Amino acid sequence: MNKIQSIAIRIALIQEEYRDADIQKAVKLLETHGSPSLVTDYLKSRLASTSMDKVKRKVSTCKPNEHHSKAVLDLAGVDDEKYSLLLEFENLIRRGEILRQLNDIRRLGEKLDKNFVNPRSRREAINNLMVVISHLPINDIKDIIDRSITSVVPSNEYQDLAQYLIEGKHSGT
Q1: Residues of the chain with pLDDT under 50
Q2: Domain region containing 80
Q3: How many whole angstroms separate alpha carbon 19 and alpha carbon 16?
Q4: For FRET with 166, which of 70, 91, 97, 114 sits at 20 to 30 Å CA-CA?
Q5: Do 70 and 150 have their domain in common?
Q6: What is the pLDDT of residue 63?
Q7: SS3 readout for 4-16
Q8: Which of 84, 74, 68 is nearest to 127 (CA)?
Q9: Are 130 and 71 in contact (CB under 8 A)?
Q10: Which pLDDT score is estimated for 93?
Q11: Prediction pTM value
Q12: Are residues 101 and 147 in the same domain?
């Protein structure tokens, strides 16, 4: 996992774990007792816009934990590092940012566990995958997340190959 991806996951975890009001208070505290930075300016402007969006939207009636698998929630307080990683990984999958198709989730599950239960729905597949992954060592989990993220973002070599196949010339020429 590269540095930027790591920062993005940390920010997403903070946003997932804390309410916007708490984050706003923390940003104000940083401004008061520390030096303002691009990060605090960005968070301040982002939080202002999201709070306006929330006022415009209907209040959601679903509980925050309804969208997380039991396997991930069971890690809270037991293994906080695993919990944080898997919580964000599950969120990325549920939002369709990685492992977009049911077959993608199924294939990964079958690679990790030959007895992976054949799911009927994407939701069931995500829950089953989180059960399998939650039992793995933290370094294996990090590798799985890294491979899943990098499989979505093509490398320059693949882009160059695609460009060559499409246009018949190297993009560097």
Answers
A1: 50-65, 173
A2: 64-156
A3: 8
A4: 97
A5: yes
A6: 40
A7: HHHHHHHHHHHHH
A8: 68
A9: yes
A10: 93
A11: 0.54
A12: yes
